[in-house]
Amino acid sequence: MNMFTSPDSLNQFLHYASTTTIPAILNQRKQLLQQLPITFRRAAVLMPFDWNHGATQIWLSQRSKQLRQHSGQIAFPGGKLEDNEDSITAAFRESAEEAGLIRHQWHLAGTLSPCYLPSGFKVVPVLAWSNAHLQWRPNCAEVSEIFAIPLSIILDSNQYQQSVMRYQQRWLPVYHLHYQHWHIWGATACMLLHIAQCYEAWYRQANNISPVN
């Protein structure tokens, strides 16, 4: 399914997503986590969109099972901010270290609202896209595998499921996405659902479709 007719149309959508407020379905989770007695540490991840001759997709990685935090989980490349570092710089730096990303192949489109994690991180998703011939070079100490999912899956809100998790006397919504043998959940699924919700609003706006009440 060709959801974007050109790299420019993908860039326009990602810019739109970066300038909209957090969807209501995710704002509740954000507010619940902000109420916890946690000092959140700043972190950033890169959401790498690939316009490959119209076959648009997004790249994710499986974290090494040897890591102490979030081992074996599906995630975007990223990590904690260093001193005097901004989110965009951190996201690209970590992506180069973890996956061998080549910075000049990528176009920055913006950032999403921060995603709060029960593990104590406030993560800024950085949106970027490329139409270059990509060759990943994963750091095996941090990444087990790098794979892509078509945007036709990612941008369909019906593909996501919700469960709940008890955490510090609160019930937190947890989102899930299944693709082939991959199970994507937690913060990564939240970020993807955020993009899916933005796409639905963008599509309605572009086609003058009234939202369904």
TrEMBL record:
Transmembrane segments: none annotated. Its cofactor is Mn(2+); Mg(2+). The keyword Transmembrane helix does not apply. Residues 39-173 form the Nudix hydrolase domain. GO terms for molecular function: coenzyme A diphosphatase activity; metal ion binding. Keywords: Hydrolase, Magnesium, Manganese, Metal-binding. It holds the Pfam family NUDIX. It comes from the Bacteria. InterPro entries: CoAse, NUDIX_hydrolase-like_dom_sf, NUDIX_hydrolase_CS, NUDIX_hydrolase_dom. SUPFAM superfamilies: Nudix (SSF55811). This is Nudix hydrolase domain-containing protein. The lineage of its organism: Bacteria, Pseudomonadati, Pseudomonadota, Betaproteobacteria, Neisseriales.
